Amino acid sequence: HYTMTGNRGLAMEHFKKFSEQDNFLYWFVLFLEDDPIISELSGHPDFNPTIKKIKDKFWERNKEVRQSLEAEGLILE
Q1: Is the pLDDT reported for residue 2 higher than 90?
Q2: What region does 12 belong to: left with phi over 0, alpha with psi -120 to 50, or beta?
């Protein structure tokens, strides 16, 4: 909403708060930078660090789940 009204600063603040969440869905991470609303923030200095934070959190959680499933014998290497 804020990007559409031209308030990119406030939009970025909300996006940074969103990045504090856990358990991002794969489809969200996959298409994150292709989203036209999110891409409106790409010129903001906090954009790339926030994108990186979301991706890092996703892949760290993915690694934890994979290790857990391997330990239970549900994924074979």
Answers
A1: no
A2: alpha
* The residue to which tokens 């970025």 are assigned: 12
pTM of the predicted protein model: 0.85
pLDDT range class, residue 45, cuts 50, 70, 90: very high
Res 6: pLDDT: 80
**Assigned token pair, 9:** 């600063």
List the structure tokens of 8: 């990119």
Give the tokens for residue 46.
């906090």
Report whether 2 contacts 14 (CB < 8 A): yes
User: Residues 19, 49: contact at Cβ < 8 Å?
Assistant: no
The DSSP letter of residue 31 is H
* C-alpha dist (Å) from residue 31 to 26, 27, 72: 9, 6, 31
